[in-house]
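Hey, can you fold this one?
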Amino acid sequence: MTIDIRERTIFTLPTGTEPGASTRTDWVWCGAIALLAWVGALAYLGRYRPNQVAEILYRMAPSDVLFWGALGATLAVGLVALATRRRAVGGAALVFAAFLAGHPLLELVYTFLPSALRFPFRDLDDGLAFARARFAYGLCVLVPMLLLWALAFGRGGWPPLALGVGDWRVRVRDLSVRSAPAPAWRELIGGYAVFCAVLFLLIQASVGFQPLLRGTLWPVLPAVLVAAAANGLVEELVFRGVLQPALIRAGGLTAGLWVQGLLFGLMHWGLSVGMLAALPTSLLIGFGSVMWGKYALDTRGLAWVVVAHAMIDVAVMAAYFVPRS
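Sure. Predicted structure:
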């Protein structure tokens, strides 16, 4: 059954007996699946991107034990759910297991990439190398997930995979029920673009505006744009395109939207160097991801959130991915 939440906000999602509402059990299932995926992915990626959260996990068990244990546990959750006739939960768990299984495949594919990543960017080739790496990640993770999705869910059901462009003309609400619904395109080029511009200046301030004052940003701006577009596209395909619909099927709209946002924020927190310093930003990312998830549902596609994601990434990369002197 199709559920239209365009008149709702992320704070007024279905509750109680409304279609799409989530019970406590739904939250537990979704939370357990997302937590296992987070532990497994962080245990694997932490070997290549050292950080404090991964170090804490490695004190409990070696990275291989954590990764394969999380993958096995996710599969077990799926099998238990299927055995107890919770088909949607079982299907979601299998899709998340496929997400984890794509990481060893990614390691193999990376060995065949023509060039290593280089930071800060020096020219367009560096941006293209980053884009190739992100597309490799997307390919390795998405293919197993789509295969398991087809096996678990087939073609029917709601929500479907959100892999299309979508309709930006639909009228939606974001945060306040007091504000009148507005076309999605107006929200993007209006308030959201202003927010990204302010964010750009705030992040530039954190590096003393060096990329702007010294002129080091402009020669590598094409590389930044390419990298931001690739990163936005791939991450939205994975998280809002496949993982979010799986969670919504497993636990309803409310749990599905908020758990996917929490997972996305925790992924950024877990891969950040400073555990405490990165926590506020990661929580903001998670909150924003709930909004992005709703826009993906509202527009029935990913183009809006891909553009929004890329705009944020431009603001970040324009400070941290370019030379400062």
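The chain has one domain: 24-320. Let me know if you want another pass with a different chain boundary.
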